[in-house]
Amino acid sequence: MSALLDNDEANSLLRRKIMGYIVSQAIFAVTRADVVEHLGDDALPVEVIAAKAGVDRDALTRFLRVLVAEGLFTEEPRGSFAVTGLGSLLREETPGSLRHLATLMDNEAYQAWSAAEHSLRTGEAGFDKVFGKPMFDWHGERPAEAAAFDRAQAGLVTLRMLPLHEWDWSGVGSVVDVGGGNGTLVDGLLARHPRLRGTVFDQPHVVGPTTTSGRREAIGGDFFERVPPGGDVYVLAQILHDWDDADATRILRRVAEAMTPGSRLLILEQVVPDGAEPHPAKLLDLHMLVLLGGRERTETHWRELLGGAGFEICRVTGSSRSSLIEARVAR
Ligand SMILES: C[S@@+](CC[C@H](N)C(=O)[O-])C[C@H]1O[C@@H](n2cnc3c(N)ncnc32)[C@H](O)[C@@H]1O
């Protein structure tokens, strides 16, 4: 006991973890105030940054002091601050930008975390307890919040779809992106593959009325009811992690019904490693629980889930940030 009392290292480590959300909130606040954008590439005096961003000078100095310690900014002589490479990832135009991730972890998602204990005790979404209904239903009634969510998801698609660029699209005539949001992923594929036709399928309030424009079609519907049939490739990008196994199986069965014998299913998710190491997928797994009652899955879990819905996995590729699970209907 006294050994622990005297252990400054253990005490500081746990303190930092307990107070970790202060760092997240500081990042959200400076992101909302566009501090990194206002700062540009050169060091600026804090009063100039404060004036450009419309924030309080003293408060900004204190927020930046925390974020200097976290490596997002440097403090230059005479009260000036500059953005580091890490901090520049909060800029939308930086390749690999995480600005949209900050948006997705902020706002209603952050509020849902106030019911984390409810999720722990029940295995259910904290979001529903805080907001009175599931997140996608809540978004259905709030166009502004839904549009912000769709924009933020779309902002991460460039990174998310990297494993799709390694995939062999030769001979593929059509792709259906199930739960494809505002169509950023399909647009990215159509731009790279001039003979490909693409369908974006999502909730009617997300895609709007059914439209066809050139090689791109947008269809509104419910993936628990029916998925547009006949595609050569079906994509499920960050969809199945929103749902528990029973609902994920229902979605997979609707996709299987829509597929032809030669169709392929490409799932973009993050696979949870089996080991004890820290991994973003382990954090995202809890986030999916609190937000939606969903989950991230290990490769073993993916094989069980897909097998139970009548699929077999052909291969798993990609990186630790975005894995591509290729599957087909089992013969
Ligand atoms: C986490 S977002 C992923 C969006 C996109 N695939 C991406 O990678 O950015 C989940 C998507 O599922 C859609 N969705 C939720 N419930 C749905 C339903 N019942 N039918 C069709 N789409 C649904 C949402 O509107 C949202 O666009």
**Shape estimate:** globular
Architecture of the largest domain, CATH level 2? 3-Layer(aba) Sandwich
Tell me the strand percentage band.
Answer: 15-25%
Query: Spans of 5+ residues with little confidence (pLDDT < 50)?
Result: none
Q: What is Rg?
A: 22 Å
Strands of the widest sheet, in order across it, are: 6-7-5-4-8-9-13-12
User: If you average the pLDDT, what whole number results?
Assistant: 95
User: Span from first to last CA?
Assistant: 60 Å
Q: What percentage of residues falls in helices of 4 or more residues?
A: 40-55%
Ligand species: S-adenosylmethionine
Q: CATH homologous superfamily name of the largest domain?
A: Vaccinia Virus protein VP39
**Category from helices, strands and their pairing:** alpha/beta
Q: Please give the CATH class of the largest domain.
A: Alpha Beta
Number of helices: 20
Oligomer: single chain
Report the sheet with the most strands, covering strand number, pairing sense and barrel closure. 8 strands, mixed
Q: Count every beta strand, where a strand is a DSSP E run of 2 or more residues.
A: 13
What is the CATH topology assignment of the largest domain? Rossmann fold
Q: Domains counted in the coordinates: how many?
A: 3
Keywords: Methyltransferase, S-adenosyl-L-methionine, Transferase
Domain O-methyltransferase C-terminal: 118-312
Protein name: O-methyltransferase
InterPro entries: COMT-like, COMT_C, COMT_dimerisation, SAM-dependent_MTases_sf, WH-like_DNA-bd_sf, WH_DNA-bd_sf
Structure report:
Helix content is 49%, strand content 18%. The protein is an alpha/beta fold. The protein has 3 domains: 2-88, Orthogonal Bundle (Arc Repressor Mutant, subunit A), CATH 1.10.10; 99-153, no CATH class; 157-329, 3-Layer(aba) Sandwich (Rossmann fold). The strands form 3 sheets. It has an 8-stranded mixed β-sheet, sandwiched between helices. A hairpin with a 2-residue loop joins β6 (211-213) and β7 (216-220). α3 (20-32) crosses α6 (57-69). The chain is globular. The mean pLDDT is 95. Bound molecules: S-adenosylmethionine. S-adenosylmethionine binds at residues 136, 153-154, 157, 160, 179-181, 185, 202-203, 206, 222-224, 237-239, 242. S-adenosylmethionine binds next to α13 and α14. This is O-methyltransferase. Residues 118-312 form the O-methyltransferase C-terminal domain. Keywords: Methyltransferase, S-adenosyl-L-methionine, Transferase. InterPro entries: COMT-like (IPR016461), COMT_C (IPR001077), COMT_dimerisation (IPR012967), SAM-dependent_MTases_sf (IPR029063), WH-like_DNA-bd_sf (IPR036388), WH_DNA-bd_sf (IPR036390). Residues 19-90 form the O-methyltransferase dimerisation domain.
